[in-house]
Design a protein that fits this description.
The chain is built from 6 helices and 14 strands. With 333 residues, it is an alpha/beta fold. A hairpin with a 2-residue loop joins strand 5 and strand 6.
Amino acid sequence: MFIDYAKIFVRSGNGGNGGCSFRREKFVPHGGPDGGDGGNGGSVVATASTRVTTLLDLKYRRHYEAESGAPGQKANRHGRTGADVTITVPVGTVIRCADTILADLVTPEQRVIVAKGGKGGKGNARFATSTNRAPRTFEEGMPGEELHLDLELKLLADVGLVGFPNAGKSTLISTLSAARPEIADYPFTTLQPHLGVVPMGEYDSFVMADIPGLIQGAHRGKGLGHQFLKHIQRTRFLLYLIDVSDWTTDDPVSTLRVLQEELSAFDLTLGKRAFAVVGTKIDAQGNGQRRREIECYCRDQQVTFFPISSATREGLDTLRTFMAQRLQEIEAA
């Protein structure tokens, strides 16, 4: 199950109290203070990992509490530090407290302390002075932090695939990569995002993201795609997939405009993202009228257009090479 949102409660450990004791040994009836410091409380730490791809575990375990520090002991022995609690989350997780972003974990093994443990208190040995050689003063440990956190996963990909249901997004990503989303001849086959690594030669590759199909009004909550639009916010390039087969009666130019409007309404930066248009299913284009319409429109708008067929693989090598080169240009800019 793909879960990209979770709400959890975290509590870091309290600091241990400082000790209050005095040295008691044979032949030393009035020894000085020897209370040790309390241990620091454990912290709650979030770590990004490639071993997990969803927030499912956090959906069912919602409370995380670190251990408190131990109190200071006699003979100047400091209390033990409380054990930390580590929460493992997928790479791309954003952690918020109320409206404040605490962390955006975008690299593997990136760590952040979301709730810091309380500091241990000083023992009475720390308060001895030339005028007060037997202090009974000590510090209590500082309390830990209690926070309600919102965790949101935003997938990391180089290229985002955008299109209406049945535009051929899942077929394209499964043909170019090892991703295996469900593919069928009915709308909304894709119910969750999929990532696919597209190989380019022996040592190079890029990551492509497929999200559920959009419909008009998606930014207002219609259909399924709106809840997954956030997963293409981090992409560097967008591919708008337009079905040019004779199986559909949708106007291809209007379809492209609707898709662009939906993305801009959701996030203005998405509307300004570099993109190209892909005409899919050209193996079933009939007389080619729909393909000519969108191709002519893209030419007038000076937009790159690629006619492809995932079924026959026509045009895929050209598209893949273009994407690799375009991503290199974006990275170098």
